[in-house]
Amino acid sequence: MSLFISDAVAAAAPSQGSPYSLVIMLVVFGLIFYFMILRPQQKRAKEHKKLMDSISKGDEVLTTGGLVGRVTKVAETGYVAIALNETTEVVVKRDFVAAVLPKGSMKAL
Fold first, then answer.
1. Interval 15-48: pLDDT, tens
2. Phi and psi (nearest 5°) for 80?
3. pLDDT tops 90 at residue 106
4. How many CB atoms lie within 10 A of CB 73?
5. Residue whose C-alpha is closest to residue 65's, from 91, 96, 93, 44
6. Alpha helices in 2-96 (DSSP H)
7. Structural domains of the chain in order of their starting residue, each with its CATH number
8. How far apart are CA 69 and CA 109, in angstroms?
9. Residues in contact with 64: Cβ distance below 8 Å, sequence separation at least 6, in sequence order
């Protein structure tokens, strides 16, 4: 005996819900996780792969490092040569191309 809690209240166990409620809640959280995180990420990855496959010679591209240039050579090994100006050319991995810019974008800069 405690002065603050009666024996009847302390001995009573909280009522348990149905065992299926936990399973249903886990399924609902799994669906929320899929539609809020996994599905948009897969969609972005699919669009980026499509972008990388469409890169060809003469395209003006923006890299993830912020370089803007014109593609001069596309290698089968996954690398792209980009001319930044008439004298400077860099080779980057095709994965690091962030966007293909519209024609004439380099002249506007």
1. 566 778 889 999 999 999 999 999 999 999 999 8
2. -130, 130
3. no
4. 12
5. 96
6. 7-11, 20-33, 39-53
7. 55-107 (2.30.30)
8. 11
9. 96, 97, 98
